[in-house]
Each structure stands twice: as structure tokens, then as C-alpha cells.
Sequence to fold (251 residues):
Amino acid sequence: MDANGEELAPAVRSILSAARDRTGGGERVSVDARSVPEAFAAAEADGRAPVIAEVKPTSPTTDGRRDDDPVDLARAMVDGGAAALSVLTESDHFGGSPASLERIRAAVDVPVLRKDFILTEAQLDVVESDAVLLIARFVDDLPALVAAARERGFQPLVEVHTRAELDRAVAADADLIGINNRDLARLEVDLDTFESLAPSVPDDVTLLAESGIASTADVQRMRSAGADALLIGSAIMDGDVTANVRRLTTA
Ligand SMILES: O=P(O)(O)OC[C@@H](O)[C@@H](O)c1c[nH]c2ccccc12
Fold:
């Protein structure tokens, strides 16, 4: 059971128990971050849908694993028009690493989001990134972790899946919020999630639609429902990543 009183999918329980074992807590990070909202605005001005393309070698819901150099993948995504990148640093279930994020961030000039299951302040002190994901469902003291991220220069992206989590994100002063279409209890995706929660998000929040966006029709659907930007992983990682990003950003 988690805080929502709902059973989590076994893969997610395994991810969380690995996350609890990671101590983090190297030297305190202080980052001079590339602005995520500015990167979205630049993409819009250039006629592209703002997309955060995700470097995700594998996942509990993906068959197989992509072994290309993550830096090559990242560059190819930027070539296709990605406004920003998301890089998994979780190694046990997603094939990512802090080292690949570090290399990617040195190789591109767009903002890079660190995608991991961060539960404690010490786990922020692992690698420099422009933004960090904080999953409302798993973080006990969200206002404290949002503040701790900002103190280090990170832009916190708070991920929500329910109305109650959205209210907690807003109360924690989040100004970058992602609505995850994937239910972490069942690992199923439903784009209705974004459509039903987006109207309750305050206007001054930069709002992302996350997960399950596979086609240009999905991009248009999320944009019409109020998404300022889209976070897309699997549909980009499957095949020619440059062509995939180009197709999805010119929807
Ligand atoms: O591959 P998709 O369905 O396009 O989803 C991307 C991203 O939203 C997903 O990887 C994700 C959303 N929240 C997360 C939290 C941790 C790890 C991964 C995620």
C-alpha cells in the first residue's frame, strides 16, 4: 500500500524499494540552470510543439532495451527539434545513470530534466541537471523537497496523477507541473487523465502532459486540452529518434 491506500504494481514497488536504498548525498549540487519555460517559448516561436524527448533505454513497460550511446540518442533528438531532454538516471529498472546525464548535458545546449525516483533531499546531490522530477505520490514532504531543489538551482517538475496530488503540488508552490497519464498502480495509460485534471491547474503554471503520447493526434489532443508541452519517451525511443521527434513536434 502507498499513501493513496492503493496497491502499487509490483514493478513500481520494486522501483521504490531500490530508490529507498540509494543514499545520494555527494557534494551539495549548485547548478546554473538552463530555463525550461524559455526553451518551450523558443520552440513555440519557431513553430514547433514544445517536446521534452526522453532518453529511456528500457522500462518496466518496454520490451527489450536500446543500447545505443545515450549521447548519440540525445543529439539526434535535439536535431529533430526537441525543446528539452529528459534523461533517466535510474539504473535498476530503466537502464539509465547519472553519468549518462552528465555526458548528455555537456553535449547539448537544451535544458535537461533528471528523471528518477527522488525521495530525499540527499538524493538531489547526485548530478547537475536543469530540472528534477519530483513525484507527488512518493514524496512525503513535497514543499520541503521543492524548496531544497530550488536552493540548488534546479527547476522542480512536480508530477501528479490525481486531483489530490495536483492540490498538493500547487500548495507546494510548484510552477512546473506534469500530469502523468500513466497510473502507477496498474501501469496503464489513459489520456483522459490529462483532460480531466488540466482545467483545475492554475494559469500561471507551466503544464506538461506526460506518458502515452504516441501520435500526432495525441499531441494535438493534449495541446487542445491545455498542455504547454509534452513529455514523450517510448514513441521517440522506438525507431529513428530524429524522425520521431520531427514528426511529433510538427503535429
Ligand atoms: O514512454 P512514455 O509513455 O512516452 O512516457 C514518458 C514519461 O512520461 C515516463 O517515462 C514517465 C513518467 N513519469 C515517470 C517517472 C519515472 C520514470 C519514468 C516516468
Residues 109 and 247 are 21 Å apart (CA to CA).
